[in-house]
Amino acid sequence: MNFHSVAELLPWMLLLFSSTGFTSPVQNKEFDCKGRVERCERKKAAARRPVCGTDNISYPSRCALLRVRCFNDSLLRVKHRGRCKEKQPCWVDHTTKSVDPTRTPDSYMPRCKADGTYFRIQCHKKEGYCWCVTPAGKVVSNTIVRGQKPKCDNGRGKWRRGSLQKGGNHRRECSKNDKAIFVNNLVRIFKTEYNREQYAALMNAGDRSLLDPTTLDKRAFEWKFNTLDTDKNESLLK
Prior knowledge:
Elements: H1 6-19, H2 25-42, H3 44-48, E1 51-53, E2 58-59, H4 62-71, E3 78-81, H5 89-98, E4 121-124, E5 129-132, E6 145-146, H6 176-205, H7 216-228
Antiparallel strand pairs: 1-2, 1-3, 4-5, 5-6
Helix pairs in contact: 2-4, 6-7
């Protein structure tokens, strides 16, 4: 059989490929992945034992990880057997805040590094405040500034705007406005810490009234007071 052009040859090629089960590379990939997952799930041990992925997420089984690898993330691999031992505090915090029903678009959202720890400088874009944190997300004292980034050198934060007058030790008395700003800053810090430390526990408790935003300030203050009241005598010493 002679063919004098590609146009004459093409129909016969299509017929040949269809009869021999030819499929596109994409279809082959999907078919291969599906087959690998099915073969994995037939192995009872592999289907039951948890593993830690290279994305630092625990999967209930190697088969579950393989399914994600096949259809979502081709670079995903098994990091080690068993659940992930490493804790990623910033990722946990970010996820918790993302699902918080009281969250607004202007709420603070932590910035996380690729390893799941916090960036050294965190900022509240809406309010314009920035502060230093530890890799675990703890606020470093005396680092909150507005309209600029704080200095986080040597693991210790420093105010960029000093509270002392230049050329002497005379301290200016705080005005009512200064006191109001100071209190608002404290409230904001307490609420941030409270949300980070307590939200998961509140969700597990199942009491939705504990998530009422109208009582958040009071709950945050009471929580912070109880945290600082180490001797439980209901009073704080300077």
